[in-house]
Structure formats: C-alpha cells, structure tokens
Write a structure and sequence with these properties.
Helix content is 36%, strand content 29%. The chain contains 17 helices and 19 strands. The strands form two sheets. It has an eight-stranded parallel beta barrel with strand order 8-11-12-13-14-17-18-19, surrounded by eight helices. Strands 1-2-3-4-5-7-6 form a seven-stranded mixed sheet, sandwiched between helices. It is elongated, with a radius of gyration of 23 Å. The relative contact order is 0.09. About 4% of the residues have low confidence.
C-alpha cells in the first residue's frame, strides 16, 4: 500500500475529480462532510472543488492510497484584513472515505496538513468537530490538539441538536511556544505597542479597469443615468486587449442593458471580451438566477457580481456562494448610504453597511461598493463610506465611483494603509478620457 498526501495546486484530472467526488459522497452518506446532509451530486461537487482552487486563502489537500484519492482536507487562512489572526489557520472539510478507514490514513493526512500549515508560517491550527464523530475526536487528541470549548447548538441533524467541539494545536517550537504563551495579553491589559513596520500593509491595491456595455459598445454613465452615456468604443474585445497589454491583471465588466432588463443582454460583447484576453473577468448586470451564474462561469468568466438580487433574493446569493466558493461578489451600489437596485433606478431603505454584513454572512468573496452620486463624475471616491464598510467586514472591499485623478488613487492608497480591508479600485471614465494613464494608475496602486 502506497499512501501519498499532497496539496492540490492545479486542476484535478477527470479521474481524480471522479474519485474525490465518490469519496466525498461516501463520507456525507456516512454522516458528515462539508455541511451537506445529503450528497449534492457530482456536478455540484466538481464546481465546489474547482472553485476552491480560485480562493487564495484556501489550500486543498488530498489523500491517495495506491494513487486513488480517498480523502481530503482544507487549510483556511484568515483574510488579509484579519491582522490579529495572521498566524492562525483553520483545518476544515477533513474526511477519509468510510471504505479507507482503519489504516492510519487520516493521521497521515492531518500530519501532512500540519506541515503545510507550518510551511505557510502559521503558529496555531484550529478545527471543530461534531461531538458524534468520536473517531475524529480521538485522532485530533492523539496528535496534540487541545479541546478548549463546546458549541451546544453546533448542528441540527435528523431533528436533533448536535454539539460541536473546538480544538487548537500550537505549532510553534518549544522556545517559541514559551514566548507565545508568556506574551498572551491579559483581558483589558492591552498589548505591547506594535511598531508601524509590523502593521503597515505591504500589498498593493488591485486596479480594475471598467468596461461598461450598452448596446454592444463601451460607454460610461454619469450617476448611473442611461440617457447620460458617453460612447468610447465599438470594439469591447479590443479595449480589453489594450488593458491587458498595458499591464492590468483583472477586468471589471458590467452589462448595463442587462442591469435594467434583469437578464444578460450584451452577450456577444461579453463573450468576445472573455475570448480576447486571458485576464480574470468579473461580470455584473442582470444576473439574477443560478442558471445565469452557471452559464457565465462555464463561458470563462472568473467572478460573478450579484447586485439587485442581493437585496431581493439573498438566499440565491448564499446558494451561489456555497456552490461556487471564491467566485461570487456582491455589488453594493448606494445613493448617500441607501442601497439602489434595478440598474440604480430604485433606491431602497436598506443601509449599505447592513447589506454588506449580510453578504459577508452569505459567503461572498468580496464587496464592490459604489456611491452612485459620484460615479462618472470624476470628483473622487467616497473614502469615508468605503473605509467604514471595510472596517466592519472580514472580506475585501473594492472601491468604485468617482476616480478622476491620480490624487484620488493616492488618497485611496493612504486610507488602505490604515484599513487593509480595502483591496482595490474600479476606474473607468478617467482612463478613457486620458485623465489618468494606466501606467501611472498601476504604479500608484501597486506601491501601497
């Protein structure tokens, strides 16, 4: 018997994916795994695991016996905005198929994941287990995990409430562990001052050049008014290629007609953009059901932006985020803090920050926040609202609406140093009008 535990760094082969889905299905039928009570089917499982590879904070490990995948687990790092938890990692989605148990394979997999956690610089590894999973609990205890808490209402299965147990293991060496334990801050005592060098973010912000589509052409609106559109290009694919050649690493595409119609309208233009460039494309506008989400992800779009549906059908957002981890983004557009929907034509009573918290809970990968009154006006981003939202969330916030000069991007960069949850900016009209060169914009944001 040959046992191999490895981190998955590229797409699995069809045979490997089939074996993994078979193992997961067997694990779910046996009473646990990934939160499903019943197997969702191979198609849903394939989408789930393919999506995991797109989530930077997640590392998927698989267990092979004689070359066949029979178990898996994930290491989940906190978002970059969680500076206080930067040295921790969570072990989740861990299982060994019932037909492969009793041979020490689970121990080998966890040991490999512990080494992986150490390699990424983690000092503490956490996990939680249903109280009914006695074998898993015994395994974690035998590997030095400490039980530190119990959740009395962890899960609801078969009409009964099941408790959950929380475990942690300190990964630091003996001397480093002693330093960690001696430096644990007492309640209300406050920690030692942290130097600005350790708290300062060294990661740049991402630039998302915007391609807004109306009647098949690239346009920009003012304050979201369809009748106040400036036409820029009849060839969206060529425009996307120019952005790629200039050094951009992502594209932000919006189907404006679709946003008002409630369904994708500029289909040929979107497809041409995806085919013309190898850049990841995030797409929004009129995507209101799972069929449309699946259709665009299968067509090569990297992330789907859900806007109006986030307000009107939050359960769809939750389902989509679960089916396509890392590929669902919430677009929150607001007029003076109130959420707008239907292509910005309707303004609700819902506060933007409240919706953002709901979307974080639903599992979206990021929030795109736009203050509509500034969009296309070149007067600068609403930094106060953007920063306030980012401080409340653990997922990234992308700023949008109003960039007109390099100083506006510099101001965002300055704010992002203190609010690391801000991850990037969408820029449109200023690029098309030549008020900002792509090179300068990339230089400014990349130096954060």
């Amino acid at each position: 018997m040959t046992v191999v535990c490895e981190r998955v760094v590229s797409s699995l082969s069809p045979d490997d994916m089939e074996a993994l889905c078979e193992a997961v299905t067997a694990g779910i039928l046996d009473g646990g795994g990934f939160g499903w009570l019943q197997p969702p089917g191979n198609q849903a499982l394939e989408r789930y695991f393919e999506g995991l590879l797109l989530v930077q904070e997640r590392s998927l490990y698989v267990l092979r016996e004689d070359g066949i995948i029979c178990g898996a687990g994930q290491l989940v790092r906190p978002p970059s905005s969680y500076e206080a938890h930067a040295a921790t990692v969570n072990l989740t989605g861990f299982f060994v198929a019932p037909y492969a148990r009793g041979r020490g394979l689970g121990r080998a997999l966890i040991q490999a994941m512990i080494q992986g956690a150490k390699a990424m610089g983690s000092k503490v590894i956490n996990c939680d287990v249903r109280e009914t999973h006695a074998a898993a609990i015994g395994l974690f205890r035998s590997l030095g995990f400490e039980h530190w808490g119990t959740h009395p209402y962890y899960a609801r299965i078969g009409g009964q409430t099941v408790r959950g147990l929380f475990f942690s293991k300190l990964l630091a060496g003996e001397h480093e562990a002693a330093r960690w334990q001696s430096s644990i801050a007492a309640p209300d005592a406050g920690g030692a001052p942290v130097s600005s060098e350790t708290t300062k973010s060294h990661q740049g912000l991402m630039l998302y050049p915007a391609i807004d589509l109306k009647d098949g052409a690239c346009v920009r609106l003012r304050r979201g008014e369809m009748e106040d559109a400036t036409h820029y290009s009849d060839d969206p694919a060529a425009q996307a290629k120019l952005f790629e050649e200039a050094g951009c690493r992502h594209l932000h595409v919006v189907d404006l007609n679709g946003a008002f119609a409630g369904k994708s309208t500029n289909v040929p233009a979107i497809e041409s953009i995806v085919k013309a460039t190898g850049l990841p494309v995030q797409l929004g506008g009129g995507i209101r059901d799972m069929a449309a989400i699946e259709r665009w992800l299968e067509a090569g779009v990297s992330r789907i932006i859900l806007g109006s549906v986030a307000v009107k059908d939050p359960e769809l957002v939750r389902q989509a985020a679960r089916a396509f981890p890392g590929q669902i983004v919430a677009g929150i557009d607001a007029r003076q803090g109130r959420v707008a929907t239907e292509g910005w034509a309707e303004v609700s009573e819902l506060e933007a920050n409240d919706l953002a918290l709901h979307m974080e809970d639903a599992g979206v990968a990021a929030i795109i926040f736009t203050e509509i009154t500034r969009d296309g006006m070149l007067a600068g981003l609403d930094l106060e609202q953007t920063a306030d939202m980012a401080r409340r969330l653990s997922i990234p916030v992308i700023a949008s609406g109003g960039v007109g000069t390099l100083d506006h991007l510099r101001d965002l960069r300055t704010i992002a140093r203190d609010v690391p949850g801000i991850s990037g900016a969408i820029v449109g009209r200023a690029l098309y009008d030549g008020r900002i060169s792509l090179k300068d914009a990339l230089d400014v944001l990349g130096s954060c």
